[in-house]
Task: structure prediction
Amino acid sequence: SYELTQPPSVSVSPGQTARITCSGDALPKQYAYWYQQKPGQAPVLVIYKDSERPSGIPERFSGSSSGTTVTLTISGVQAEDEADYYCQSADSSTTYSVVFGGGTKLTVL
Amino acid sequence: QVQLVESGGGVVQPGGSLRLSCAASGFTFSSYGMHWVRQAPGKGLEWVAFIRYDGSNKYYADSVKGRFTISRDNSKNTLYLQMNSLRAEDTAVYYCAKDQSITIFGVVSNWFDPWGQGTLVTVSS
Result:
């Protein structure tokens, strides 16, 4: 079955830049999406269609894509950005599929 | 604003059944597909099922196919998930989510926005 691979954890100091990667063979052909989930809360969409930012999401959140890897970048990380981040995409070889990455815990030191 | 409120979670014995509901408001429910996504305790997100805006097509994860049924009542703005033959591994918080999608060159891409607050299902004897 199709998989999206994320690093389990990323740590940065406040004000630095955090980069979270997501790798998958179908990513050159499928958009990727990113969700932020804080403890005890539902996920929130922070990036859609690889690099678009929904209204209400701070400008420090950005997304990019290169080949089989997509990247969520958080510039000028703040303490409130500490959360789990999940990428999501699809397997273009099946009729219908939705796949999530395993998630990355962002720790703000 | 868009609001999704799940209900129906609880404790059920292995082999038992449960029906979850998701009450939608703040948007034209009958115009959007809807999803169920679950999250086992301390684990990541797992997509469960999708239903088109008119109920004409339904898709399931392999892990629940044949046991779970997604449905909707557009007159009541409500999404459902009927869960039968429940197993311990079905223990999770179940979220409903509004579908957003785009089709480019015949390829459909879906995402979830927003999500409900979730309802906990515990399968245990």
